[in-house]
Every structure is written in C-alpha cells, then in structure tokens.
Amino acid sequence: MLPRRPLAWPAWLLRGAPGAAGSWGRPVGPLARRGCCSAPGTPEVPLTRERYPVRRLPFSTVSKQDLAAFERIVPGGVVTDPEALQAPNVDWLRTLRGCSKVLLRPRTSEEVSHILRHCHERNLAVNPQGGNTGMVGGSVPVFDEIILSTARMNRVLSFHSVSGILVCQAGCVLEELSRYVEERDFIMPLDLGAKGSCHIGGNVATNAGGLRFLRYGSLHGTVLGLEVVLADGTVLDCLTSLRKDNTGYDLKQLFIGSEGTLGIITTVSILCPPKPRAVNVAFLDAVGPEGKDHRGAEPGWLRVQVRPLPPCGAALRHRD
CA-to-CA distance for 201 and 153, rounded, in angstroms? Predict the structure, then answer.
C-alpha cells in the first residue's frame, strides 16, 4: 500500500498579492479571494501545453471565415479581445492556462447546435465552459480550442408548483435558482460553496455533490431530463419531466458526470424537494468507547455522539 502524501498547495495560493488584504487585515490569496484573476502582483500562470507533456491533435485552426460564420450564428456573441479572453483561459486555482482566441456565447440550444455542426464540418476543437469554478481544470482549454460559454443561457423555462419540477437552461446560476425555488417553498437538491458563480449545467456535467448530497442524493436521481447537443450538432431531446419513465434507454445518465466529453448540456429538468419547515444544527463529536477523547480510543471503536448547539450567544468551550 502506497503511503499517502499530504496535499501541498502552491505557496502563492496562500500568499496574497502586495496590498491585498482580507476583511481582517490579513493578506489573502486566490483560495480566499474570487477576484484573483486580474489582481496585480500575482504570477502569470504557465501555459498548460508547456507545463505538461501534452500533444495537440490534428484539429484545424480558426480562420476569418469561421469567425464570420460564428458572427452569423450568434450575433454579438463572439469574443476575440485578448484581454477579455484572459479569465476564460485560466482555471479557478490559476494552475492551468489555455490559449484560446475565440469565445462564443450562444443563447439557445439551436445556436449551440449550429456552432457544433460548423465546428464538426471544419474539424475545430471546442471546450464547453460554465461558471469556470471547477478545481481540476476541466473547464479551460489546453491549446487553442474554441470556448463555448453557457453564460447567456440563463432562463427558467418552467416550474411546477405542486411537483417541484424545475426546467431551466444550463447557464442558470445555482444561487439564483435557489432563490427562485425558495420563494415558492422549495429548495434545490444541491448546494455548493461556489453557488454564486457555478452553472446548473456544469453541476450536472460534473455530477456535483455538495452539502445536501446525503439528504437528497446525487444528481443521477434528482435530474429527470436533459437536452444535450452532440458533437456533430444533433440535438438529443431527453427533457422529460416524469419522475418515472421506463420507455427506452435512460440516455441522460450518460451525460451526468461526462464533463462535456459526450455533448453539451443545454437544458435541465430537475426535481426540487419541498423546503424544510425547520433546520437544526448539531455538533458531531467523536468519542471513545468509554467516553474518552477520540485520541485515546482504539481504531475502529469510535462512535458518534450528537451534542445540541449551545444557546445563542453562549461561548463555545472545548469539553475536557
């Protein structure tokens, strides 16, 4: 059995830029500050192709004719400004950087279909991107792939006030969806620390778990249907809102957790549970078999003891 190696964060992640301080006056790094991509003093992120021994596959490069075609498909949704492309090319941890020269921002599934059909015919590589909050670099290009952003696909299409079934576009921000359904006495079945930026399409594409996983299960169970655009531009309509559907293959399960490798998720149908009437908070304290501190307990003999939260304003003291 191999020994476990502790995770070593790069020093600059924990070291703030000169003059950058948090709410307590201490310098903060990118792990604690979301607006870190353009902070002065932070080191430039090395290109992924220079950092890792990766080889570019024989894809075509974007031409002026391609840009003109994209402008016809998504008028006003083609971004080629190098300064505007800096943030979409860098991952959240600032460890990976691509060199894409084109960012496309469609609004509908039809526009995504036309884009992918054109790229398929021209042999152009495409990198789907949602809120770019992932921490494994899957949302940023490796080379000069076209970035296809779902940021403008942010409409709620329908919500059933009895069953709690929400149908929305993939670019909807999780926090905004949470507010939308909470106003109707429902909650989203997942909650993440990045909910203010992440997109529901990216959550489904990565099969995100989050804080409510143990209570409501994974997205494989709460996602009822998907609309997906395949690499050749074909629109796969599995957007059912039935809680049980035994007709044919359950193709949507292939795309939950596929991270954009099989197709781009454009619309999501998801089951929202009713909003809890009350929320209770408790401390989980690991104690030994004789009530001793867990540090003195034998391995395998730990049990969990639930202690209620102290009254509001009471000081939290460590139990002897």
Answer: 10
- CA–CA distance from 14 to each of 8, 36, 45, 263 (Å)? 11, 12, 15, 36
Tell me if the pTM is above 0.70: yes
**The CATH number fitting domain 156-271, selected from 3.40.50.300, 3.90.550.10, 3.30.465.10, 3.30.450.40:** 3.30.465.10
Contacts 24+ apart (CB under 8 A), 119-125: 119/146, 120/231, 120/232, 120/233, 122/60, 122/66, 123/58, 123/59, 123/60, 124/59, 124/60, 124/62, 124/66, 125/57, 125/59
- The contacts of residue 218 (CB under 8 Å, 6+ apart) are 207, 209
Q: What is the domain partition of the chain in residue ranges?
A: 48-149, 156-271
Q: Are 212 and 223 in contact (CB under 8 A)?
A: no
Could you report the per-residue pLDDT of 26-65, keeping only the tens digit for each? 444 444 343 344 455 567 899 999 999 999 999 999 999 9
